[in-house]
Design goal:
This protein is mainly β and about 220 residues long. It is about 10% helix and about 75% strand. A hairpin with a 7-residue loop joins strand 4 and strand 5.
Length: about 220
């Protein structure tokens, strides 16, 4: 009897320890962004006029209790393509691929969550028109994430901001969402994403573009 009780306690301890050691989450959203503004790359100019595109975005994160090592979050927005006029009566198609790698630290983790870190945004794309051009840049950004749990409702309001500014150029990527917890593992979420790309003669680009739109999806935590 004592041996059985001891075994059960050991197994329970292992399970609790495992839960405290690692936390893993995944999110998949349907995303419907709209592009506006002007984008110029190597003299190829595209004028966007609120043209929308259906797509998706994916988020993954891994958290652990080791104080010195940061947690990690990965966000992917596969190819989003927007058409626009080229100023000469023709049409260009500009495609953006985004992959965000974010090491971060949890400052608060209770009713209120607060995370800070650095995002390395891998921005790749291509311009298709009279002349086809490809571009690829890695841009470091400040990351700030926050959330609040509405006790007793199963709802959580959360958001994050990624931002960098240098010599008048800036890049921002912000999200806010409401998350409803179906159970301890599954969540449903809906929100809005807002991105700006303001570049003046850097990376062979001149850009004043806004990409924004709603998203809805599901998440899972393990």
């Amino acid at each position: 009897m004592k041996k059985s009780v001891l075994t059960a306690l050991c197994l329970a301890s292992v399970n609790v320890s495992a839960a405290m050691i690692l936390g893993f989450g995944a999110e998949v959203d349907y995303y419907n962004p709209t592009a506006s503004g002007d984008f110029n790359y190597k003299t190829t100019t595209t004028h966007f006029n609120n043209q929308s595109q259906s797509g998706y975005q994916i988020g993954l994160y891994l958290e652990h209790p080791v104080p010195v090592l940061p947690n990690i979050r990965l966000d992917f927005t596969p190819e989003s393509s927007f058409s626009g006029s080229n100023g000469a009566g023709g049409t260009n198609i500009v495609s953006f691929d985004q992959a965000d790698i974010t090491p971060y630290y949890e400052i608060l983790d209770n009713v209120v969550d607060l995370d800070i870190g650095v995002t390395f945004k891998v921005l790749e794309g291509k311009v298709e028109g009279v002349v086809n051009r490809n571009f690829s840049e890695v841009i470091p950004m400040v990351y700030l994430g926050a959330g609040i749990n509405l006790e007793g409702t199963g709802l959580r309001i959360a958001g994050d901001v990624k931002y960098v500014e240098y010599n008048g150029d800036s890049l921002s990527d912000s999200r806010i969402k409401a998350v409803w917890e179906i159970n301890k593992m599954l969540q449903v979420q809906a929100g809005y994403r807002y991105e700006t790309l303001k570049i003046n003669d850097r990376f062979d680009m001149n850009s004043n573009v806004v990409i924004e739109g709603p998203f809805i999806g599901m998440g899972a935590t393990f």
